[in-house]
């Protein structure tokens, strides 16, 4: 274990042992920091289980951040103990203060020139990485995002990579995706295309035309398209710790289907089972959708740049449209709640803004983490999937710059003024799952990702996207699905000869006006707030969306 890894682990354990009275985590033990410290140090696995039980409630935004903090710190501590038990100092039973004193002493005095390395096949390594990734995915790792990133980076730097030493096979492709492609439709109603639109020209467009627009030659400088290509399997292997990093994968054709589900799996498994698989192979579609992968793996964030267009102060949703009406209703309900209950302020935000991990400078991990990210920048989500992946017809409550980084997609859009009698929005649907239904790890992992997406809704919008639903044991929950159309546009697109059948199912939909495009690598699509859109992948590919308002 090299010196940098020693320092990171020393810093991590020291930070977790030193519980700040203003840290929201103390609420897990009613402010008794000594009891909390005892729980974390002596039984981190028990702390994880306790926090997990409190995280599984609905709506997730009502979960006290203290349980997210507890889950995070317990996961970090357990991961550090795994490393130490295998490389530095085997854990004693029970874990007590004397053990930690001796462990910290050894870490402080560890000789950096010993050049101890982690073997890539060490059986404890992958489970340790998964511990840290689950904390990121399930809780967002409040106040500890940078610490987890630094710890994973130090582990990777200390590990003998199988990629650096293995000779490549002559038949091995470096592409991340299978060459399988889906047919491209004939474009009848094209979206206008412009090259290298200026900031002022874009601002004028979204205030006057308020329509979709394809923008070319705006992101060609991205490293993801050039020097650090996201199309490269080898590059992704390096960025995901030889494929060990966990990612949330949606399984099934679309989230509107009954057999749709979610799992959290290693990136290498995602590539082998879903991205680099020919269409004639049996098995469901798997894709990564609407996930903040760049926050989970910050090194990838350096491969892109936020388009300048996202810094235009945009207009709100157009009056009379579904998003406008919903936001107005939410604003009225919010004002009513504040009037009835009065606004309360906790010390959580004040603590988060002032909190910086002690000793982080030495470990190279100064933290700018916060309990809730209040960044003024856009919400960035990544989409990775094979050809034929679809996003059902739906609308979002944000303006969107949608960038195609790898591959190509067909996109069709309908105006937010399209009557409900033509677009057929869904209504409220009921989710009812009890603890007895959590029968395997795949189900449990699905719940974890749903909770992670709900965390994003805390910062984004009180309304929940269709996939942002989790359960409270033995209790039915109503989910607003009105941003998703009942119309199966994929079926209509693939079977145009059945027009009479589609007209019987959804009268008037085939007459609704739309615009469409094929967005290719290096191109941007501006989707105005509230516009209904349907997306189908023509090739395996990667997209990044920038939501802002």
TrEMBL record:
Start and end residues of each JmjC domain: 345-549
SUPFAM superfamilies to which the protein is assigned, alphabetical: Clavaminate synthase-like
Matches recorded under InterPro entries: Cupin_8, JmjC_dom
One Pfam family recorded for the sequence: Cupin_8
Protein name: JmjC domain protein
Gene source species: Aspergillus indologenus CBS 114.80
């Amino acid at each position: 274990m090299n010196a940098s890894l020693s320092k990171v682990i020393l810093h991590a354990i020291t930070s977790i042992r030193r519980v700040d009275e203003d840290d929201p985590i103390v609420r897990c033990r009613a402010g008794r920091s000594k009891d909390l410290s005892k729980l974390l140090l002596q039984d981190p696995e028990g702390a994880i289980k306790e926090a997990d039980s409190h995280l599984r409630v609905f709506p997730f935004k009502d979960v006290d951040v203290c349980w997210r903090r507890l889950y995070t710190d317990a996961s970090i501590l357990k991961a550090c103990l795994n490393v130490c038990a295998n490389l530095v100092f085997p854990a004693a039973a029970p874990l007590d203060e004397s053990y930690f004193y001796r462990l910290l002493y050894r870490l402080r005095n560890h000789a950096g020139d010993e050049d101890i390395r982690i073997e890539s096949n060490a059986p404890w390594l992958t489970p340790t990485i998964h511990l840290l990734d689950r904390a990121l995915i399930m809780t967002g790792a409040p106040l500890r995002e940078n610490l987890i990133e630094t710890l994973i980076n130090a582990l990777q730097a200390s590990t003998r990579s199988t990629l650096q030493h293995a000779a490549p096979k002559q038949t091995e492709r470096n592409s991340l995706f299978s060459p399988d492609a889906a047919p491209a439709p004939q474009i009848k109603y094209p979206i206008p295309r412009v090259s290298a639109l200026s900031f002022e020209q874009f601002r004028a467009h979204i205030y006057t035309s308020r329509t979709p627009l394809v923008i070319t030659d705006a992101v060609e400088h991205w490293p993801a398209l050039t020097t650090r290509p996201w199309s490269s399997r080898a590059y992704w292997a390096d960025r995901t710790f030889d494929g060990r990093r966990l990612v949330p994968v949606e399984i099934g054709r679309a989230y509107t289907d009954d057999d749709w589900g979610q799992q959290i799996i290693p990136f290498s498994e995602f590539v082998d089972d879903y991205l680099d698989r020919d269409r004639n192979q049996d098995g469901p579609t798997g894709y990564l959708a609407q996930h903040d992968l760049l926050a989970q793996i910050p090194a990838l964030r350096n491969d892109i740049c936020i388009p300048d267009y996202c810094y235009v102060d945009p207009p709100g949703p157009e009056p009379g449209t579904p998003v406008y009406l919903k936001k107005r209703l939410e604003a009225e309900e919010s004002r009513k709640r504040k009037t009835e209950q009065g606004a309360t302020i906790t010390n959580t935000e004040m603590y988060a803004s002032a909190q910086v991990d002690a000793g982080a400078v030495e470990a190279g991990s100064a933290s700018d983490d916060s309990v809730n990210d209040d960044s003024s920048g856009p919400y960035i989500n990544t989409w990775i999937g094979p050809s034929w992946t679809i996003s059902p017809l739906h609308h979002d409550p944000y303006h969107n710059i949608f960038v195609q980084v790898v591959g190509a997609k067909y996109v069709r859009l309908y105006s937010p003024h399209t009557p409900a009698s033509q677009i057929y929005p869904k209504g409220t649907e009921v989710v009812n799952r009890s603890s007895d239904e959590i029968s395997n790890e795949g189900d449990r992992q699905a719940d974890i990702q749903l909770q992670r997406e709900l965390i994003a809704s805390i910062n984004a919008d009180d309304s929940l996207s269709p996939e942002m639903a989790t359960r409270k044991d033995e209790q039915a929950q109503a989910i607003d699905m009105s941003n998703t159309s009942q119309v199966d546009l994929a079926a209509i697109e693939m079977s145009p000869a059945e027009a009479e059948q589609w007209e019987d199912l959804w009268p008037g939909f085939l007459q609704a006006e739309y615009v469409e495009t094929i967005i290719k690598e290096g191109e941007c699509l501006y989707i105005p707030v509230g516009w209904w859109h349907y997306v189908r992948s023509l090739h395996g590919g990667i997209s990044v969306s920038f939501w802002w308002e």
